[in-house]
Design goal:
Shape: globular
Helix content: over 70%
Oligomer: single chain
Number of helices: 17
Radius of gyration: 22 Å
GO biological process, one term: respiratory electron transport chain
Distance between the termini: 21 Å
CATH architecture of the domain at 1-189: Up-down Bundle
Strand order of the largest sheet: 1-2
Structural class: mainly alpha
Order of helices and strands: HHHHHEEHHHHHHHHHHHH
GO molecular function: cytochrome-c oxidase activity; heme binding
Family: Belongs to the heme-copper respiratory oxidase family.
Strand content: under 5%
Subcellular location: Membrane
Organism: Chlorobium ferrooxidans DSM 13031
Number of strands: 2
Largest sheet: 2 strands, antiparallel
CATH class of the domain at 1-189: Mainly Alpha
């Protein structure tokens, strides 16, 4: 006779609320720096300068919001898919507290100007050690629970969690090897083009294994749960998984096209970037075909809109990204605001949509309640959708204009515009970006309110 499994949801809730907190903080900082882009007078102190706040924004949302959301959903999925409680629940709780302490210290250090200057790896060496420690705490629970699992069949979401756990450990440690010179300053062990190559091997893949791989784990788990439909093809999901993991790690140098990096490395990155379209769209097709014959759920099931919009933006993202890696296209768009729009279509349209829907399913289930207001969830969806589309479109158009102005020449070969001409011409797009970000942020505030009111209800039996 099978014993009833008692799952540990305390840490799941803790990371969920941590994700919500860092999401709000990160977006507030983002709105401030978006305002600074067309009102530079807001740089009133070094602590509020664009250079410092931008890295607070990216780290606060990348490490604070996204990772906390990933940890919350991973601890939930890990238990449910293995039919086993966490192997080390006290370690998981310590992980929660230590994680938030490191993120807070990291944000304060960046506010104070302590910065390695490496993209997505700006944290100085003492904070890096803290990141490695909380990652090891997470990994111990992941593999400990998998080893003790009662369910021997491993669903695709578990494979994505394993890939994230292993890949991020390797990426973070290799790229952040540094020599401390003081308590608050260090220098990388790499130099020159080799430093750039390692940095963007890390930079592209840390995005992939935080913003893609674990979010796909959520998508593959919560879409079938929310719809009551089996995933269209588990075989397709496995093929896509292995192809994605093989290809992703070779693509980082597409950030360094037309640079002193050896041309063969650039070409390898470009080729694998184009190859990446196939496994990425394997998951898109899998999501769409899961709903075949049941597309009426787009109207009747509020969660489905989030998942399908999210996977659609993922698909668009994984078309746009590889195409930007082509030399001719890269020569025009690199360093322009087009790239900013590209990144935010992924973070706002893919990551935040999927995390929102996952939380809407997960939180009522672990608190034995039902969602407070489906109407508010629908309003949130449309605010996020409208805000994200306007935001990214504004940056794409700005990027096209920016690239054209940078390359425009007079008949004698001199540049037609100076750098300040380009900056001034982009102010209308920056103002539109701020307005769109505000719309998106209002949607997030509704999300937070809906979750808070959900858990404040009297417990009721929710669907398992």
């Amino acid at each position: 006779m099978n014993e009833a499994v008692v799952y540990n949801y305390k840490t799941v809730r803790g990371f969920a609320w941590s994700a919500v907190f860092w999401l709000v903080i990160g977006l507030l900082v983002g709105l401030w720096i978006a305002f600074e882009m067309f009102n530079p007078a807001l740089n009133i102190t070094p602590w509020l300068s664009f250079g410092r706040l931008r890295v607070v924004h990216t780290n606060g949302l990348g490490l604070g919001f996204a990772l906390a959301g990933v940890f919350s959903a991973s601890y939930y999925m890990l238990q449910r898919l293995t039919r086993s409680p966490l192997a080390f629940p006290r370690l998981a709780q310590a992980h929660l507290y230590f994680f938030n302490a490191i993120i807070a210290l990291g944000a304060l250090s960046l506010f104070a100007g302590m910065n390695t200057t490496k993209e997505y790896a700006e944290l100085e060496w003492p904070i890096d050690i803290g990141v490695v420690i909380f990652w090891v705490m997470f990994a111990v629970n992941v593999f400990g629970t998998l080893i003790k699992r009662r369910e021997k069949q491993m669903y695709i979401s578990l494979w994505y969690i394993i890939a994230m756990t292993v890949a991020i450990a390797i990426l973070y440690i290799v790229n952040n090897l540094e020599i401390p010179v003081t308590l608050f300053k260090s220098y990388t062990v790499y130099s020159g083009a080799n430093d750039a190559n390692v940095e963007w091997w890390y930079g592209h893949n840390i995005v992939g294994f935080v913003f893609t791989v674990p979010i796909l784990a959520m998508f593959y788990y919560f879409l079938p749960k929310a719809t009551g439909l089996p995933i269209y093809s588990h075989r397709l999901s496995i093929v896509s998984f292995w192809a994605l993991n093989f290809a992703y790690l070779w693509t980082g140098a597409h950030h360094l096209m037309l640079t002193p990096l050896p041309e063969w490395i650039q070409t390898v990155a470009m080729a694998f970037s184009i190859f990446m379209i196939a496994p990425s769209w394997g998951s898109v097709v899998n999501g769409y075909y899961t709903l075949q014959g049941n597309w009426d759920q787009m109207r009747s099931n509020y969660l489905v809109k989030f998942f399908i919009a999210g996977i659609t933006f993922y698909g668009l993202q994984t078309l746009q990204g590889p195409l930007q890696g082509l030399r001719t296209i890269n020569a025009f768009f690199h360093y322009t605001d087009w790239v900013v729009g590209h990144v935010h279509m992924g973070t706002m349209g893919w990551v935040t949509m999927i995390v929102s829907a996952s939380f809407y399913y997960m939180i009522p289930n672990i608190t034995n309640t039902v969602i407070y207001s489906i109407k508010l969830a629908n309003i949130q969806f449309w605010l996020m959708m409208v805000g994200q589309v306007i935001w990214t479109s504004a940056m794409w158009i700005a990027g096209i204009q920016q690239g054209a102005m940078w390359k425009a020449t007079n008949p004698d070969g001199s540049l037609m515009y100076n750098f300040l001409d380009t900056v001034a011409s982009l102010y209308p797009y920056y103002q539109l970006r701020f307005a769109a970000g505000l719309i998106f942020f209002i949607g997030i505030l509704i999300f937070v309110w809906n979750l808070v009111m959900t858990v404040r209800q009297e417990p009721r039996q929710a669907e398992a």
